[in-house]
Amino acid sequence: MALDFTAIDFETANGFRGSPCSVGLSKVRGGVVVEEASWLMRPPENHDHFEFHNTRIHGIRAEDVAGQPRFGELFPEIGAFIGGDILAAHNAAFDLGVIRSGLEVSGLPGPAYDYVCTVMLSRRCYSLVSNSLPYAAEEAGVPLVNHHDAAEDARACAGILVDIARRNNANSIAELYLSLGLNLPQQPAFDPAHGLSKATMSALAARTGATLPGAPARTAAAPAWSAWPEEGPNPLPNPAAEPGHPLFGQTVVFTGDLAITRPEAKSRAADVGARPESRVTARTTVLIVGDGFVAGDLRAGRLTGKAKRVLELHAKGQQIEVVSEGEFLQMVGGA
Asked: Helix, strand, coil shares of the chain as percentages rounded to 5?
């Protein structure tokens, strides 16, 4: 068996993961990138507005994709490029979610994909204070100049996976997962006619102003954040969560002003199998930072007190990492 897979990266127009506006793919055979492809696209109808935050990150505007096919029209080409390959993505919960939600709101069924999350593998195989793509790519010795260019990010993801396989003397994805004692996760096939994913239902409810059954009502007067965030209770991890999720089994702490309330953030973390706590301790494995933090701030020194404590613990050998709120929301499917 050879180290064969396809790495994929999406950029989205807004906070809904089903709003892809570009994709990059790198096909790997025997540990070497042999073919690449990338497309600009219009997101699915009714989900094609471009938010300032997203455009500021990737630079793509509505006018840049105005003449392009929509995601649903383009997916047959994307799917043909992937073929029967295992998919690799850095934060696969997001990129596989883009495929699912993008097809669901397009009214199209989707195939099953075995997949690899290089965030989870980076956490397992590297010792980094941040497992964001730039940090992991640097550790793997992979060039990454234009982060958030989908083609370059897919290429960097491919390089990270090849490096991790090499470090573990694995000649295939199957050998790598066997050596790490992991099971290869799979996104099953789906048909929107038979039910929608939670992320898609939430986006549709938000667009219509409705709430999902059992969800708390939201009021316009509720503030998005406050100077002294209310920690709220620490819910228990969801025992039915997907073990392949990058936050599954992690002990997470939040710091800084978030775009959502601290209790809601904790609830979303617990829903995917994480254990939220209120302060950094020897149990902490992930610190999620608000205030517009990005991974580059670790080097710039723009940190909260909790983040500085994490750096101290990491320097002493505790396996702990810092994640931006944006990365967290991608992982849990929020906007």
From this structure: 35, 15, 45
